[in-house]
Amino acid sequence: MKHIPSNVKDKYEILGIIGEGSYGVVLKARKKDTNTTVAIKHFKQSPGYCTDMDIIERELKILQSLRFVNVVELIEWFRDKKQCFLVFEYVEWNMLQVLQEHPDGLPLEQVRQLSYQLFSAIHWCHTHEIIHRDIKPENLLISKNFVLKLCDFGFARFCNTQTSADYYTDYVATRWYRSPELLIG
Q1: What's the whole-model pTM score?
Q2: Which of 10, 33, 80, 134 is an active site residue?
Q3: pLDDT digits (tens, 9 = 90+) for 1-21
Q4: Is 33 a catalytic residue?
Q5: Is pLDDT at 81 greater than 80 in this prediction?
Q6: What architecture (CATH level 2) is domain 93-184?
Q7: Protein kinase domain: which residues (predicted)?
């Protein structure tokens, strides 16, 4: 990774790429002073960077207000003129990977535990007037101790009775995970 600023490289050793998306790339890294493994979300530079910064700042504000065991923890963040890096706790798998590893399904007790944790995360968000808007297997992280953590709040919004409908974009969730009401109106 050649475009990582020195303030990030001074604190973290980049170990590899976890995944890529339209927003940028998620890196696996090691914090040098504690030897802790973290995930760093590096946003791609784009011509509409000011708009992108609005989205990033909204995600930051949401994450900072949602400290909860079943929401991925934002550790810190870095920004310079053209780049932004969000540093998160590292979680080993996502739900898609877990399901692919268990094609015959998970034991019922694990399904119950994971369902409860997902519902707890969603309830916590709603209690704080936040709607996630992109819940899908890739955004459900699963730790080695089978703790579920909701992640990727890029499409999330603060929501209350005073919020104007114009505040919300038409894009809500990845098409395959949209509710019938969203798909057919």
Answers
A1: 0.85
A2: 134
A3: 567 888 899 999 999 999 987
A4: no
A5: no
A6: Orthogonal Bundle (1.10)
A7: 12-185
Q: For the chain, give the secondary structure using H, E and C.
A: CCCCCHHHHCCEEEEEEEEECCCEEEEEEEECCCCCEEEEEEECCCCCHHHHHHHHHHHHHHHHCCCCCCECCEEEEEECCCCEEEEEECCCEEHHHHHHHCCCCCCHHHHHHHHHHHHHHHHHHHHCCEECCCCCHHHEEECCCCCEEECCCCCCEECCCCCCHHHCCCCCCCHHHCCHHHHHC
Count of beta carbons in the 10 Å neighbourhood of residue 43: 21
- Domain positions in the chain: 6-89, 93-184
Residues placed in the known binding site: 41
Binding site feature residues for ATP:
41
State the Cα–Cα distance between residues 108 and 61, nearest whole angstrom: 36
